[in-house]
Amino acid sequence: MLIRPVDLARIRDGEIDLAFRRWARPRLLVGTRMRTSVGLVEVTSVDEVDDVSDEDAARAGAPREQLLQLMAPKAPAPIWRVGLRYAGEDPRVALRNEPDLSAEERVALVARLDRFDRASSYGPWTRETLAIIAANPARRAPDLAAELGRETAPFKRDVRKLKELGLTESLEIGYRLSPRGAALLEGL
Questions:
Q1: DSSP code at position 78
Q2: Segment 126-182, tens digit of pLDDT
Q3: pLDDT tens, position by position, 49-87
Q4: CATH assignment of 93-186, given 1.10.3470, 1.10.10, 1.25.40, 1.10.1760?
Q5: Per-residue three-class SS string for the chain
Q6: CA-to-CA distance for 59 and 48, rounded, in angstroms?
Q7: What pTM does this model have?
Q8: Residue range(s) of every CATH 1.10.10 domain in the chain
Q9: Which is nearest to 22 in space by CA: 76, 93, 64, 63?
Q10: Which fold has domain 5-89?
Q11: Other C-beta atoms within 10 Å of 104: how many?
């Protein structure tokens, strides 16, 4: 579910706790936690409704007519009222900012990278991806992928795997190694 950055900030600040979407069927489950630019946003409810009340529209951060107009192109799909709440910081932020790796953590990370490499249909990629990001912070993903002879979409998918481990950070353009990623790369 896409949420505008301005609305994410308002969810974080407790000003918004609802969103409305037109979907043929619900696309979210209660309890889902979405990683966003402001941290984790949790889905607290997903209910089909006949209409949007003025009160609920205010809780969604927009006038009722504006919400209905935004959803109009998806009519006649049902309207879903989605409860949202800020659920805290993205745990990857604390993880990536921790450069002090214990021996056990280092072994576990290397094992995970090895597993990614073995499972890859195009061969080992983890170390060369970490190295190219380290050498080219804030460089466009298509440029990095091309330099490695890879397609952009699979390259970005692989970088997200590294991000899940707290090894990289996404920038407005490109990536950089996190302190954790730099510490791991140093020992590889």
A1: P
A2: 999 999 999 999 999 999 999 999 999 999 999 999 999 999 999 999 999 999 999
A3: 999 999 999 999 999 999 999 999 999 999 999 999 999
A4: 1.10.10
A5: CCCCHHHHHHHHCCCCCEEEEECCCCCCCCCCEEEECCEEEEEEEEEEECCCCHHHHHHCCCCHHHHHHHHHHHCCCCEEEEEEEEEECCHHHHHHCCCCCCHHHHHHHHHHHHHHHHHCCCCCCHHHHHHHHHHCCCCCHHHHHHHCCCCHHHHHHHHHHHHHCCCEEECCCCEEECHHHHHHHHCC
A6: 17
A7: 0.69
A8: 93-186
A9: 76
A10: 2.30.130
A11: 8
Residue ranges of the chain assigned to CATH 2.30.130:
5-89
Residue 111 · residue 119 · CB < 8 Å: no
At residue 47, what is the residue type? D
